[in-house]
Automatic annotation (TrEMBL):
Name the UniProt record assigns to this protein: DUF2231 domain-containing protein
Keyword Transmembrane helix on entry: yes
Protein species of origin: Piscinibacter koreensis
Keyword Transmembrane listed: yes
InterPro entries with a match to the protein in the record: DUF2231_TM (IPR019251)
Alphabetical keyword list: Membrane, Transmembrane, Transmembrane helix
Domain DUF2231, first and last residues per copy: 17-136
Superkingdom of origin: Bacteria
Transmembrane segments annotated in the record for this chain: 21-42, 54-78, 85-105, 117-136
């Protein structure tokens, strides 16, 4: 019986601070809640779903705004050759701005939020989810026999 040896290399390794993980990952379910509440409002015309989406959006903007601040500070000390933190910060910034626009959309009359509110909620959720995924991905492991 022969034993095989493997060469394991990490391409880069950064640990994720727990507060950073909370800020990045915490806004994803809140923006998902905004999307689901907007879909529920579009299907039922119960104004409370729009109000619920407004409050979820406010909480999500708070968490993602703090994550954006963390990303800007992290970019100042990041290595110049790494694209992932820059891409995550850029997507987070665009998602936060569109989330703010969605917040203004929810401040309008209840009937005036459809269908733009749902479309914005989908776009913001996708942007924030991808930004969180990129912002929390820390290392890659390469295994060679």
């Amino acid at each position: 019986m022969t034993t095989a040896t493997y060469d394991v290399r990490r391409t880069h390794h950064d640990w994720v601070h727990p507060l950073r993980a909370l800020l990045f990952a915490g806004s994803v379910p809140l923006f998902l809640g905004v999307l689901l509440s907007d879909i529920a409002y579009a299907n039922s015309d119960q104004v409370q779903w729009k109000n619920f989406a407004s409050w979820l959006n406010a909480g999500a903007l708070l968490l993602s705004g703090l994550a954006l601040l963390w990303s800007v500070i992290a970019l100042l000390g990041a290595e110049r050759g790494r694209r992932r933190p820059l891409l995550a910060g850029g997507l987070l910034l665009v998602g936060w701005i569109l989330g703010l626009v969605n917040s203004f959309m929810h401040a309008k009359d209840a009937a005036a939020t459809l269908p733009e509110g749902v479309v914005l909620a989908v776009v913001v959720f996708v942007l924030i989810a991808v930004a969180s995924w990129l912002g929390l991905a820390t290392d890659r492991v390469e295994v060679r026999p």
